[in-house]
Specification:
Blueprint: E1 4-10, H1 14-25, E2 30-34, H2 40-43, H3 60-73, E3 77-80, E4 84-90, E5 93-98, E6 102-110, E7 114-116, E8 132-133, H4 136-139, E9 147-151, H5 155-164, E10 170-174, H6 184-192, E11 196-199, E12 202-208, E13 215-220, E14 226-230, E15 233-236, E16 240-242, E17 272-274, H7 286-306
Parallel strand pairs: 1-2, 1-6, 2-3, 6-17, 8-15, 9-10, 9-15, 10-11
Antiparallel strand pairs: 4-5, 5-6, 7-16, 12-13, 13-14
Helix pairs in contact: 1-3, 1-7, 5-6
Bound molecules: NADP nicotinamide-adenine-dinucleotide phosphate.
The site of NADP nicotinamide-adenine-dinucleotide phosphate has 19 residues, from helix 5.
């Protein structure tokens, strides 16, 4: 058993970093556990233009690095871990169990975010990292003057399709319906962009290539007609799944595995709070994650006070 903390925050995206800032300023000994890079999904977003205070938008990486510095200024300790296995109650203490270590605290804030969903089609896993990507900001520049496809019709798909036109000569957007889900302003940008071709009512059926992506096969859902497109990259943006596997069996999740909380953001396990994209909330946005991170930390502080 290792050291004991007041508050442990699981996840270092905008929700976790804001929770850290508030918890640090409340002078609670705070440990943040992160299994990938601090900044979460927001850090892999090229340009965020709906986070207040930045009229010209701000880079996702830059914004989250500033959040990190601000949390660290108030003594939040950030540690890299492999993964959290479970959260357990031990009297008034909460135990955060990882593969190598168990951490003890009075309260826990889960801000573990979400990760990209996969299609589960032939070629997707085999060619991941060889033309199949879930992050245009990370990989877009590899596709200068090449043709690529984006799968999905939500905010992420359309935003990243527009971003990819900076590099690619053509961007196909493969969407399963005849209408996009993305915000109107993003739709307008896609419709106006001569490099974007939207392929409506279509499913991506397989991704082909010898060691790298070379071809995709799509199928029109109405006519069942199949068509092949030669291209170099496939970016999949079909939504996300919450990182909550470690909660299964001990903390209530909804039918899509998002954490269920009350209005104080407390989960079904007393002293364990949730904030941001891993929570069953109505809007997945940095602005929301930040607000929830603040609230979760304030409530965690009150919870410890009352113990
Ligand atoms: P999303 O809003 O859930 O959209 C997923 C898209 O993928 C939908 O168009 C959906 O089609 C499609 N899709 C889902 N499963 C599919 C499948 N199996 N095969 C083919 N297509 C499939 O996900 P997101 O775009 O990643 O956004 C997640 C959240 O983050 C949203 O709340 C979004 O508003 C937010 N976000 C906001 C911004 C921003 O404000 N700038 C940027 C990025 C993300 P249907 O439309 O037919 O369901």
């Amino acid at each position: 058993m290792s050291e004991s903390w007041d508050i442990i925050i699981i996840g270092g995206g905008p929700a976790g970093l804001t929770a850290g800032l508030y918890s640090g300023r409340a002078r609670r000994r705070t440990l943040m556990l992160e299994k990938a890079a601090v900044g979460g999904q927001a850090a892999t977003t090229d340009h965020i233009e709906n986070y207040p205070g930045f009229p010209d938008g701000v880079g996702g990486f830059e914004l989250t690095q500033q959040m990190r510095s601000q949390a660290e200024r108030f003594d939040v300790e950030i540690r890299e871990i492999t993964a959290v296995d479970s959260i357990e109650a031990d009297g008034d203490d909460r135990l955060v169990v990882t593969e190598s270590e168990t951490f003890r605290s009075r309260a826990v804030i889960i801000a573990s975010g979400a990760e990209p969903s996969t299609l589960g089609i032939p070629g997707e896993a085999e060619l991941r990292g060889r033309g199949v990507s879930y992050c245009a900001t990370c990989d877009g520049a590899f596709y200068r003057d090449l043709e690529v496809a984006v799968v999905g019709g939500g905010d992420s798909a359309i935003e990243e399709a527009v971003f990819l036109t900076k590099f690619a000569s053509k961007v196909y957007v493969i969407h399963r319906r005849d209408e996009l889900r993305a915000a109107r302003i993003l739709q307008e940008r896609a419709f106006e962009n001569p490099k974007i071709e939207i392929v409506w009512d279509s499913h991506l059926k397989k991704i082909l290539g010898e060691g790298k992506v070379e071809e995709i096969v799509i199928e029109n859902k109405n006519t069942h007609e199949r068509k092949s497109i030669m291209l170099a990259g496939v970016f999949i943006y079909i939504g996300t799944v919450p990182n909550t596997t470690f909660c299964a069996g001990s903390i209530s999740l909804d039918d899509r595995d998002y954490l269920v909380t009350d209005e104080k953001l407390e989960t079904s396990m007393p002293g364990v709070f949730a904030a941001g994209d891993c929570r069953a909330n109505l809007l997945k946005q940095v602005a929301v994650a930040v607000g929830e991170g603040a609230l979760a930390a304030v409530e965690a502080d009150k919870y410890i006070e009352e113990l």
